[in-house]
Design a protein that fits this description.
alpha+beta, Beta-Lactamase, Heat Shock Protein 90, five-stranded antiparallel β-sheet, 15 helices
Length: about 400
């Protein structure tokens, strides 16, 4: 017959496991379920300790500062977790000790988590602070952001869970910046179009020469908007597919010849400057043909735009080591200063914004290339020498040979 503290221990343990299972079933998050299990384990330990001391002082176990035997469970949690009893840290997993320091065991939790907002939050009684987490900025490093939640698992005992929100915050900032930049890029040609159309509606529209010139500007600005919208849509489609590895087999040499012919006939004299060099054996690649065509158009088009007029744009395809294909595009241009190179694939980043817009650039070409290469699990490198030119290298994996 189960009675007394044994019954409490058995019930607490059963509830802990069931609660963790329910949490996992709803959240499908192993870490959240483990934290729920830790809370249940604390309740089990406290129930056992209360049972052991029933005949003595029932408060003695709660005043104890001895660490709980929960290390294996705590270490299974990837986020920093600190167990607190009567205001002191009595256990912490490795992520928590790396963040807060190895010395935190036994310290007042307000000293262990050195943050004013955390101190105020943890000082409040559980019923006053509610269940909502708080945001901590600057814990561990100035740019780090954390979400902290404290859950009482037994009288005087609580689990403090820290969730790193730095990446999510950075992603949100990127999204906000992207929307702001896209809005600005669209607003600029739109304002120009509206201004010239309004002028054409006035007396200036009666002059055939002025009307022709203004309509030409409106057409150019509308075309610029069209290119920007197309690039935005392309970027959105590529990002939506980035976790789906392309499985088709593409003959990159044939595709390069097609792109070369297209540019040679559509870019006038500058199209004649593109030189295509193919090795005798260029293996096919595993990829998305439409996206790889876009990659070649963007890279060769950039070299044609920014290279000096009349200088060659050399496109080379060759087999690389370890079943790879290497594409290089070289131009003779003013080159790019080293400090700009790491940022060239950022959306809307331009070394010379005025020149880029004048040449019809949208600021998204290299961002699209980067995402295409990432989706193909390839490598993208840019090397440039100021005053001499730029060389872009793309390495793609060769397709698996047919058995």
């Amino acid at each position: 017959m189960i009675e007394g503290f044994a019954l409490r221990t058995w019930l607490a343990g059963t509830i802990a496991v069931v609660t963790a299972a329910i949490v996992f079933a709803y959240s499908r998050d192993v870490q959240v379920a483990l934290i729920a299990l830790v809370g249940g384990a604390v309740a089990t330990v406290v129930a056992r300790s209360i049972g052991d001391s029933e005949s003595a002082d029932p408060e003695a176990s709660l005043r104890s500062d001895e660490p709980l035997e929960l290390a294996p469970v705590l270490e299974a949690i990837l986020d920093p977790v600190v167990m607190v009893r009567h205001g002191r840290a009595i256990a912490a997993n490795t992520p928590a000790r790396l963040l807060l320091g190895q010395h935190i065991i036994g310290e007042d939790v307000r000293t262990a988590i050195r943050h004013p907002a955390a101190s105020d939050y943890l000082t409040l009684p559980p019923e006053e602070r509610g269940t909502a987490p708080i945001e901590l900025v600057g814990l561990g490093a100035q740019e780090r952001r954390w979400q902290m939640r404290a859950t009482e698992t037994a009288p005087g005992t609580q689990i403090v869970h820290l969730l790193d929100q730095t990446g999510q915050h950075a992603a949100e900032r990127m999204r906000v910046d992207f929307v702001a930049n896209a809005s600005h890029e669209l607003r600029t040609p739109l304002s120009s179009i509206l201004g010239y159309v309004e002028t054409l509606n006035d007396e200036a529209g009666d002059d055939p020469a002025i009307r022709r010139r203004f309509l030409g500007i409106v057409f150019d600005e509308a075309t610029r908007m069209e290119r920007l919208v197309e690039d935005l849509m392309s970027l959105s489609r590529i990002e939506a597919e980035k976790f789906r590895l392309p499985s088709a087999t593409v003959d990159l040499a044939v595709l390069a010849v097609e792109v070369h012919e297209s540019l040679r006939h559509s870019r006038g004299a500058r199209g004649e400057d593109v030189v295509l060099r193919l090795s005798e054996t260029v293996p096919p690649v595993a990829g998305d043909r439409v996206q790889l065509s876009q990659l070649l158009h963007n890279l060769i088009g950039n070299a044609m735009k920014y290279g000096r007029a009349g200088t060659p744009v050399i496109v080379t395809l060759r087999a690389g080591v370890r079943d790879s294909v290497i594409v290089t595009i070289e131009d003779e241009s003013e080159g790019i200063a080293p400090e700009h190179i790491p940022r060239l694939t950022e959306r809307f980043y331009r070394v010379d914004a005025g020149r880029s817009r004048a040449l019809g650039g949208t600021g998204l070409g290299l961002a699209i290339v980067k995402h295409i290469v990432e989706r193909h699990r390839g490598r993208f490198d840019i090397a440039s020498t100021v005053g001499r030119g730029t060389r872009v290298t793309v390495t793609l994996r060769a397709a698996e040979p047919l058995s």
